[in-house]
Amino acid sequence: MVTVRAEAIIGCTPDEVLDMVMDIDRYARVDKKIHPVLWARREGEVLTFACRPKLVGLRQPKVVQYVRRTPGRRIDIGLTPLPANRIAHAVADFRASFETSEADGGTRVVRTLTFQFTPMLRWLLEPLFARRLEGEVREELRLAKQHLESGRRA
Asked: Residue 100: helix, strand or coil by DSSP?
């Protein structure tokens, strides 16, 4: 299993962070892992979207993910169940989240991604993801911080 966790203090409110993530086309500008977004549908606090992710330098087949927001607190992300994502489910279980809390200077954002690879591919993918995923997540948070804070100054 590979779990990556990164933190940042972003000069905005928790809801501004969560709103940006729920606007998936906007968020894809800072999270290159989910670009391109192919389509998105939102019903209340649940977003479903399809993308062709690029993780650790490898372009992946299309996946459909859900994004569920708990207002003011967090977002939970995962793959939609079968029959969607047959290839992705055969490779790994995927979970991710954004946790937010008020902090001096704005909002503490904790970004977590977890991949539990199937035994057949674990030997190949775990070392690659362990080496490269943390840098990608740190860059994602850096760009989100830059984007949100520059918007507040404008």
From this structure: strand
Helices (H), 48-154: 86-91, 119-153
Find where tokens 């670009």 sit: 35
DSSP string covering 2-14? EEEEEEEEESS-H
Q: Is the peptide bond before 71 cis (omega within 30 degrees of 0)?
A: no
For 153, half-sphere exposure in the C-beta direction (CA atoms, 13 angstrom radius) is 8
Distance CA 82, CA 151 (A): 39
pLDDT tens column, 18-72: 999 999 999 999 999 999 999 999 999 999 999 999 999 889 999 999 999 999 9
The contacts of residue 129 (CB under 8 Å, 6+ apart) are 2, 55, 56, 115, 117
Looking up tokens 């087949």 gives 61
Strand 46-51, strand 37-43: pairing: antiparallel
